Every structure is written in structure tokens, then in C-alpha cells.
Amino acid sequence: MTVPAPPRDASPPGQPKKAATAAWVGSALEYYDFFIYGSAAALIFPEVFFDESDPATATLLSLGTFGVAYAARPLGALFLGHVGDRLGRKKIMVFTLMLMGLSTFLIGCLPTRAQVGTLAPVLLVLCRVLQGISAAGEQASANSMALEHAPPHRRGFFTSFTLSGTQGGQLLATLVFIPVAALPEEHLLSWGWRVPFWLSVAVAVVGYVIRRKLDETPAFARQTATEGVVRLPLVVLARAHWADVLRVVAGALIASVSTIFTVWALAYATSDAVGMSRSSMLWVGALANVVALAAIPLWAALSDRVGRRPVFLAGAVGSAVTMFLYLWAISTGNYPLTLFLGILAFGVVYSAANGVWPAFYGEMFPTRVRLSGVAIGTQIGFAVAGFAVTFAAHMAGPDGDDWTAVALFTAALCVPPVVAALSARETHRTPAERLGERTAPGGAAQPEKVTA
Length: 452
Fold this sequence. Notes:
Layout: H1 15-43, H2 45-48, H3 55-87, H4 89-108, H5 113-116, H6 119-149, H7 155-181, H8 185-190, H9 195-198, H10 200-211, H11 218-225, H12 233-240, H13 242-252, H14 255-269, H15 278-306, H16 308-332, H17 335-362, H18 370-395, H19 403-413, H20 415-423, E1 438-439, E2 445-446
Antiparallel strand pairs: 1-2
């Protein structure tokens, strides 16, 4: 009896689970580093690095440094996407993790403004830029690795582990900051805030051990052995895939929901205008992330059955509504209501879009430019999302309490992702070797002829 040959880009048995695990653990460790900065920017850095300004200005400046990493991410995506499509996904996954660990550890070692003056915030910004460069290549390389190892018709589920890992890292960062935030003020501002950043050394070591043993994807190996790698992925993207890059940019604006929930809402809830405690609000984020860990793979598995577009659309539209309700709940000072709506908005509804985009974006591009296309598109969109926190702080007014303006701003940022999804192709049933093919008006596939 003849045994049917596996698909030409099929992974060896066990590799899909191994790739998904490496994506989950690596992303969790990487984004632990990235998100502890967000908590510190909202709760600590205004008093440590910007203490010579009035409280409102100090908070605005601190949140601005949070956005700096997002500004650096498009530049990092250009470089790391280029290298990843030429040298492989694995090398980028290891490099980004080590760079994130180093830059985060250095933040924990920085002198304060009271010690060295304006040099302190300058050094803080430089370290944050390194974090941004690292994050630029992390998700795109992990997504590509998981997608290209995934079995047919389960690509959504397997690639979602990258994003559930990101939520796991955010949860870990929040849990670490809960006891730190409970320290007496004197200890918190002198040494306590540094501890989560110092732990990044252990993060980097664990991540390196896990990722260095991962195999390169069969799709990339086949691309290298047959057609060869692209010398200039950016040129191919600009000529043949520019529309999908723009779709990814627009879709990635959905990340504004995450940054406003994680940073601005935390700062608003703990401000004098509302007066909730730091620890109680950190628990909102922690519990919402626990729910997201379960919701993300469930939404992604649903997208394998019904398609990427309907699930993504449900998350984008739903986030615009539920974030409005969440910010309203904070304004009332009602903690149980805030907790419930925070879990609903971030843990359940936002997870629909968040869980499906790794497959949705990755399936828009062929193997030869997948990492570049996803990295560049997402990081441009994420750059806007990062500075959404700063814009939100400005829109909230001098007293920082105009939550309605921030809610409307967040809803407006959910519109481009909706447009992007409505204009995109449905790809959940497209064979792996045909992903990224352009189609003629009648629907026939057109071979890609662009070389670079």
C-alpha cells in the first residue's frame, strides 16, 4: 500500500507543538520585559525620572517615553524583517530575546534624575529604544515560525500561541508589580521598582535555552533550496504586496486598545480624579490577562472554522464599545463594575482580534517576504498605538479626567482595523504554498514575478 506523501511544506511530527511552545514561552518572557515598562511608566517613572515637573506634566512625559519604543519599532522591523527573510526565523527569535533582556536589565540600573539630572531620562529613552527594536522582530519571527510549522486548517490555533504568550508576559509583569507597588513609598521609589527589571536576566537565559533548539521551518528551508531568498524583501513588498502591508498597518491600530487599557486607564484610575489604589487596578489587568490566556486560542480555533475576517471584525467593533464602558466604569469609582468590564473588554472581546491577527496577517504574504511584511506592517501600526497613550493623556485635559474624549479616540482607532478586515481576502482555507498569491479580477491566482 502506498502511503500518501505529506504536504511539501509539512513539518515533522511534533514540530508544530514545539514551535507553538517556543513562540508562547519566548513571547511571554520577551513581553514580560516590555510590559513592566508600561506599569513603571504609569506608576513610578513620573516621580523618579520627571520629578521636577508638575504631576500632570510628569505623567505626560513618562507616558511619552512609553511610546518611544513604538517609534523605534518600524526601524527595527525594516532591519530584522530583512535579516529574517534572508537568514531564517530562528536567528531573529534568539537575537530579539537577548537584546530585550539586556536593555531591560540596564533600565533597572539607571540613576535617577535626582542623582544625575537630565542624563537620567535620556538614558531611559535610549534603553526604551533598544526594547522597541527587539519587540519589532519578536512577534513577526515567532508568528512566521508557528505559521510555517502549523498543520493545514489549524494555522489560526497554532499561531495564536504567540499572542497568548504576549498576554502571559503582560500577566507576569503585572503580578510582579503588584507586591512592588505595595511597598512603602520610600522603598518603592529608591530600589523596589528596579527589581522587576533586574529579573530580565533570568528571562533572557530561559528564553535562549528554549529557542536555540528549535528547527527552522520547512517552508523557509524549501524556499532557500529552490527559489532562493530575496535579496531586498522591502523592494518586493513595495512592488507586489504594498496593499497588504497597508492592510496590516491599519489592522495593527487595534493594539491601541491594549496600550490605552494597560497604561492610560491605569494612570487615570489611580490619579487623584478617581483615587483607586495601585494594587487593585493592577489586579484588573492581571485577571483580564488570565481570561485572555484562555480566550485567545479559543477565538483563533474558531477562526480556523469560520474564517479570520468575522472573528477579527467582532473583536475590533466590540472593543470600541466595551472600552467606552470600561472607562466609564473607572470614572464612577465603582471597583466591582470596573473589574467586570475590564475583564470583558480586554480579556474577552479584545482577544478576538488579538488572537486571530497572527494568522490573518501572516497569511497575506508568501514565505519569501512573510517576516518582513508582517514586521513592517505591524510595527508601523503599533507605533501609532504606542503614542496613543500620549495622545490620550493630552486629550484627557489638564486634570486628566476627560475619559469621554479618550473613549471616543479609542473607538476612532478601531475604525481602520475594521476597514482593513473588510477589504482583505479570506485565507483560512488557502493551502500554505498558495498564501500571498495575488488574484485576478475573476479570482485566478497570479504568479508573483517580482524579484529583488
